[in-house]
Amino acid sequence: MYAVIKTGGKQYRVAAGEKIKVEQIPADVGAQIVLDQVMMVGSGEAVTIGTPTIAGAAVTATVISQGRADKVRIFKMRRRKHYQKRQGHRQNYTEIQIGEIKS
């Protein structure tokens, strides 16, 4: 069984037991969270699609860790204009393990 969930403005296809990194969720490590914005649930040939979400469907997950991704380096330059700009960015993330999918 799998589901398509929406969290942090992005959509993820998840199945029970998977570990994924999502946008930061304010929760403690080891806490159980419920993701209730389920867009689609599939099991073999049977697929249920929400409009836009499925009422009553939820995915439970456990927070494994909070962290920051690798640095992304941004470099801007205008040739012959003596302009260079260097910048870096590290995005915060929450790593979760998917538990149960209720449809």
Notes on the protein architecture:
With 103 residues, the chain is mainly β. It has no helices and ten strands. It has strands spanning 2-7, 10-15, 19-23, 32-35, 38-43, 46-49, 58-68, 72-78, 83-89, 92-102. It is elongated, with a radius of gyration of 18 Å. 15% of the residues are buried. The mean pLDDT is 96.
What's the helix and strand layout?
Layout lengths: L1 E6 L2 E6 L3 E5 L8 E4 L2 E6 L2 E4 L8 E11 L3 E7 L4 E7 L2 E11 L1
Antiparallel strand pairs: 1-2, 1-5, 3-10, 4-7, 5-6, 7-10, 8-9
How can the largest sheet be summarized?
A: 4 strands, antiparallel
Low-confidence stretches: none
* Major sheet: arrangement of strands: 2-1-5-6
Distance between the termini: 10 Å
Which structural class do you get from the secondary structure elements?
mainly beta
Could you give the count of β-strands?
10
Tell me the helix content.
under 10%
SSE string, helix = H, strand = E? EEEEEEEEEE
**Number of separate helices:** 0
Shape: elongated
Which strand-content bin applies to the residues? over 45%
Rounded average pLDDT: 96
Q: What gyration radius follows from the Cα positions, in whole Å?
A: 18 Å
Short descriptors:
4-stranded antiparallel beta sheet, 103 residues, mainly beta
Brief synopsis:
This protein has strands at residues 2-7, 10-15, 19-23, 32-35, 38-43, 46-49, 58-68, 72-78, 83-89, 92-102. With 103 residues, it is mainly beta. It is elongated.
